[in-house]
Amino acid sequence: MPHNILITGGSGYLGGTLLARWAAADLPPHGKLYALVRTEQQADAVRARYGALPLTFDPYDEAAVRRGVVDNEITVIYHLIDAFKSDSQLYMIRALAEVKKATGQTVHFLHTSGAKIFSSHAGAPHDRNLRDDDPDLYQIQKEQKAPLTVMQTPVMTNNTVIEQCELHGVKSYIFVPCIVYGRGEGFGNVISIQTVAIVKAAKALRRVYRTDEGRPTWPVCHVIDNTNLYLDILRRILLGGDGGGEGQLRSGRNGYYLAASGSVAWDDLYAAMAAALAKRGDGIVDDARVETADRAALEKMGEALGCPADIVPVQLGGNCTFTAKHGEEIGWRPTHKPGHILEAAEDEVALILENLEE
């Protein structure tokens, strides 16, 4: 039986770009492509643009999830809608287990997590490179203690997804985006998160601020390279190359996939974006200087970002030494070097300002 595939988050930055690149990806044969949507307008868009079949069930209603997954014999789910809580993931995992029992088909669940969950914000090691192919990574995550309580929840979600998939006989993959940049190609949101936070805060305070001492770094990835890793994982699933051997797709406690071409220092990113903002000459920032945020600045940044001052560094700072290795095993090769995000700062700033909601 060919795999029927469900993509959630199709109106988002990552999910929309994934769907937009689907037709040109030359994927192996598969069954139907479904996209979870919230509105009739989104349903029309995924039909017309991508040839996907829209589903409209509530991902936080277990009975609705079961009907949507089981009735359509979905065997592969890409979950891109909630990196923090695990409710909808658990409902989908249980539904996949039912499909497996009824059809005998191998079933797969990919959870989209985030680099913050492998960073100083979540109590992950950051005094050395933390590789996504580290055989102890699951245990490291089990032992992490986040300095901020809010960041403990998504760490537990990663672990819960892996454990529940093991329990129900579902193959699991933890997909980890980082600082993603570049124009999204979907019908909905076309801008990212961290770069947007830098611009939002700078616009409110008329200056770019750093939130950390020293020169912490963070992994980066162009949105197209991020999308290609999603597709390369799916390609291996469809080809059946998921046995976990050398050069095959790893899953479960060894199935972490960071999408990153390398890392940059936050200071370099702040400087590039401050220079790009200042160069526009429209008075968004007073000049291209980057200053260290004091408590008063953090409070104002929090107001601009809609979060408490203590959460501001989580939005646009911190140290993450997570390093991508697993993607290489399945042939993923990013086409944009890490420094490209600095070279593209003017384009990124222009894109963000065009699309920011007032």
UniProtKB/TrEMBL annotation:
GO terms for molecular function: aldehyde dehydrogenase (NAD+) activity. Residues 5-236 form the NAD-dependent epimerase/dehydratase domain. It holds the Pfam family Epimerase. InterPro entries: Epimerase_deHydtase, NAD(P)-bd_dom_sf, NAD(P)-dependent_oxidoreduct. GO terms for cellular component: cytoplasm. This is NAD-dependent epimerase/dehydratase domain-containing protein. It comes from Apiospora kogelbergensis.
